Amino acid sequence: MKILLSGATGFIGRSLLKKLLTANHHIYALVRQVDNRLDASINQLTLASLSVLNEQFDVIINLAGENIASRPWTKKRKQTLLNSRVELTNNIKSSLKYPPKLLISMSAVGYYGVASQGVFYESTPPKEGFSHDLCAAWEASATAFYQDQTRVVIFRLGVVLGDGGALSKMRTPFLFGLGGPIAGGKQWFSWVHIDDVVEAIFTAIDDQTYTGAYNLVAPQLIEQDHFAKSYAASLNRPAALPTPKWMLKLLFGEMACLLTEGAKIVPQKLEKQGFRFCYTNIDEALLQIEQVRH
């Protein structure tokens, strides 16, 4: 297959490429400029070179997007987050000479907005807020590919756990015994192991029945204090130091809601289609990740 990947050097992209490169695919990476971190067998394309490429892709996997939680949501930052998702997806579509057979695009459980009550399936109406607006706009730019008879699959990700990503930022404070429940710790914590993200992408490529939006979160429903205790235990550390809600609001402003609120998200569509998660228990998932590091 001819597969185009955006966000190839990101946390998910790196893990996905490892598996893609072991298969007999022609891999293209969409880059701003030539990136020496990528394997020499990967064809690197900019938007400009994509627009003159006279080929049709079997699959486009759209992973690119600025980190939503890396800095406070100023007006300028919100626009950057939108552009890195929506504008890029629109630019990919307009640059292609031929539509792809399949588009797999990422989204997030932030699609459901800031909520602590209720259960959210793929069909549940979302709550208002910037995280919903951002994800909804990103998903709309992906579903525009339907106009060209492209099959579209959207994965609404929980916190992706692996050697890198969110855990790499949490690891140091937890190692020093500074990790613990956030804002009481009773908010829901939607998580998924990186291996299950990669497996879901491969399953969507192979299984023609996959279409539309899917909650890509582990089926185990846990609260944030459960995660904090499990992660601390995987590092042989305590998880006793709580972080108050007011401090997070002071530090992060509106963005603090990503940490202080959490909806109960259920991977209903994946379970109905028989997708089998490799990691359904947070303790086992975190222990495996630590073992991989050593």
TrEMBL record:
Residues spanning the membrane: none
UniProt domain DUF1731: residue ranges: 243-288
Domain NAD-dependent epimerase/dehydratase: 3-207
Record InterPro entries: DUF1731 (IPR013549), Epimerase_deHydtase (IPR001509), NAD(P)-bd_dom_sf (IPR036291), SDR39U1 (IPR010099)
Top-rank taxon: Bacteria
Gene3D superfamilies: NAD(P)-binding Rossmann-like Domain
Pfam families for the chain: DUF1731, Epimerase
Family in the record: Belongs to the NAD(P)-dependent epimerase/dehydratase family. SDR39U1 subfamily.
Name this polypeptide is given: TIGR01777 family oxidoreductase
